[in-house]
Specification:
The complex is a heterodimer of chains A (about 190) and B (about 220). Chain A has about 190 residues and is mainly α. Chain A folds into two domains: about 1-90; about 90-190, Winged helix-like DNA-binding domain superfamily/Winged helix DNA-binding domain (Arc Repressor Mutant, subunit A, Orthogonal Bundle). Chain A is built from eight helices and no strands. Chain A has helices at about 5-35, 40-55, 65-90, 95-100, 115-130, 135-145, 150-155, 160-180. In chain A, α4 runs parallel beside α8. Helices cover about 40% and strands about 20% of the residues of chain B. In chain B, about 15% of the residues are buried. Chain B has about 220 residues and is α+β, with helices and mostly antiparallel strands. Chain B is elongated. Chain B contains five helices and seven strands. The interface of A and B includes residues 17, 29, 34 and 128 of A.
Amino acid sequence: MFTKDKDKDELLRIRKIETAYRKYGKILVAEVQKHYFKNQQIAEDIVQTTFERVIKYGHDFATYDDKVAFRFLYSIMKHEAYKLKKKEQKLSQIADVDQIMNDLSLPPIESSTNPEFLYLERTIVREAMKQLPDDYASILYLHYYHGYKFREIGDFLGISENTAIQKCYYIRKKLKQILIKEGFHDEADR
Amino acid sequence: MKQTDNFEDKILDDLLTDSMDELYDLDEISFDDAVEPSKSFTDSMDAMFQSEYKKLSRRRRRRTLPKIAAAVALFFLIGMISISRVTAWKEPIYNFFFKPSQDGEKSKVKITELEEEDEFQKYLPDYVPEGFELVDSEYDENLEQKLFVYKNNKLFFNITILKDDFDQYMDTQNYKKIKYLNRTYYINMNHDFLWYYNNYIFTFTSNLEKHECYKIVQSIN
């Protein structure tokens, strides 16, 4: 995929993004309308902003397969839509997240042998991720799945690097507290 | 404790990474829900991609042009160096560019091989007998040979200097080999001198007295 010619690589990248737009553009608009704004024009603006950001900052986009590319676009779109929704409704952020983390519904705990314990921890984290507000989820997704640095995440999502760092570490801290409460600790300490 | 914290952090990072696969449940998304976009959106997106392709094209041209310019400049430089080295081309080309003659012919400029001739000047004799003057000097570019002619009425002496990397060219038949002031000379019965020095073959001929010949030859350094 990558050639020594930088211009050729860049051309391939833009073409890939355009292909992704032709394939997924309509569905992304539909998703925005379904979950955030019914107004088609607003939905289309959000999707256009998403693609603008990917063109500008998505230097690795050419390496993504279809599924990963769609998820990537989806993540940025969700963040964009959520940000706009939050601005319109003037939602309070921290309280939401705190409430979500506190109310995490956990499966019943059976015997605490090691494999199940690990399964429990995994379940807790997955449940937490699914329930997080979209802006937190996007940051964590871009950081943990794609390995982007916080500065790059800030570029993608139109936020400051500091905001990205703070949100990520806030969730980590909350999750750690929950996991420790559930008995998560080093095997050597038992 | 710190080690434990690091271990817990690592495990947490791994758990978070692991959870990202299921973060967005794409199975829930139905592609049948896709809406037909508005014309303004389609036009706007098409324009955006066209703009990106144009930017890329301009960038490529900006990168290519200096390379082409450099290649052309290099070509001219090599051309000029070749032209300046090949004498046969020099005259007509220089005449074409720099000096049209009065009657319209373009081959009147004489290219003198000043640089190449100048190297012989340093071998002019320091001692020139009184009354003698340098009346002629000729340069044979094919042989790379310079002739200096000194005259005083009917008396003369000539010095020929030939550029030669090897002294095997010297025809020393009928010459006697002598050593004079740390230099080897070949001398015949007419007091003509022949010697090799500093990649040059020197020939001295004259109708002068022997002692004058020695003095002149010895002063050529």
